[in-house]
Design brief:
Structural class: alpha+beta
Radius of gyration: 14 Å
Order of helices and strands: EHEEEH
Low-confidence stretches: none
Largest sheet: 2 strands, antiparallel
Shape: globular
Number of helices: 2
Distance between the termini: 36 Å
Helix content: 10-25%
Strand content: 15-25%
CATH architecture: 2-Layer Sandwich
Oligomer: single chain
Number of domains: 1
Length: 107
């Protein structure tokens, strides 16, 4: 039986230095994304199904919830994937860079 992960449901106390961003390589993992169950924050990563990204959709990361833990992109030794995105569709972006493009993030 799989162990259930306790999810963080409280508001983050400070802005992280980095946060996860999804690239155009995201396929939604054929409707069963590997990144969502790895995220320790409730409702931070969401599978979005829309007409533009058929048939499986894509992942959207809530910039107000991401804590920059990198669990969604976990790699093993020598770059081998152990967990996380198998398509290398998640990159870590500095929050300062994101804010420079989109505006200030509240806590």
């Amino acid at each position: 039986m799989a162990k259930t992960q306790a999810l963080i449901t409280t508001r983050r106390k400070k802005k992280p230095k980095e946060m996860a961003l999804i690239t155009d390589q995201c396929t939604g993992c054929a409707g069963s994304p590997t990144c969502i169950p790895l995220c320790p924050v409730a409702d931070c990563m969401n599978l979005i199904i829309d007409d533009e990204h058929q048939p499986f959709g894509y992942i959207w990361v809530d910039p107000l919830k991401c804590i920059g833990c990198k669990k969604c992109i976990t790699k093993g030794p020598e770059g081998l994937w152990l967990d996380g995105c198998p398509w290398n569709a998640i990159k870590m972006e500095s929050v300062a860079g994101w804010e420079g493009e989109y505006g200030q993030l509240p806590y």
